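Moderator note: this is an archived Q&A kept for reference. The question asked for a predicted structure of one protein chain; the sequence and the answer are reproduced below.
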Amino acid sequence: MTTDEEYTFIMMKPDALERGLTDEVLSYFSDSGLQPTMLEQKNVSSELVDEHYGHVPGDVLDELHDYFDDEDVMVGIMYGEDAVKRTREIVGDEFRPEENEPGTIRGDAANNPESPLYDEDLLPHYDSRIADTWEIPLFNIVHASTSQEEAHEEAVRFYGEEIEKHL
């Protein structure tokens, strides 16, 4: 890693793995010049859900437990110049995916029938307007850290302390 580069943490969520989208999601990052590394499939425990999402209200946390508990995710570290900012731009808006620009992961999942990320049957989970109306959880395929500090915390959370020597 050069002095201009930084790293960030990503997590592809259970729906991305269940739909076989890991290579497609990774291509968004690598096509933009970011380097995905340390990719690892992990099983998410109830304790890990609590640790990662403990800041959200109880009813939402219950939904997250239903979604994540004992499911697999793919975690990874993205390296590159302005990795945190660029990764967030590639991923798109978390809470209004239907308003994202084409070419973002969340925007393509919610709006682009030409994209492999799009699935008409899952559309209610990818469009916040429908999810809110139907009172169902909003899925967004991938999580990305919002800051370098958060990236470090999340990397340690998912990889353990031994990750320190690789960052």
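Archived answer notes: The mean pLDDT is 88.
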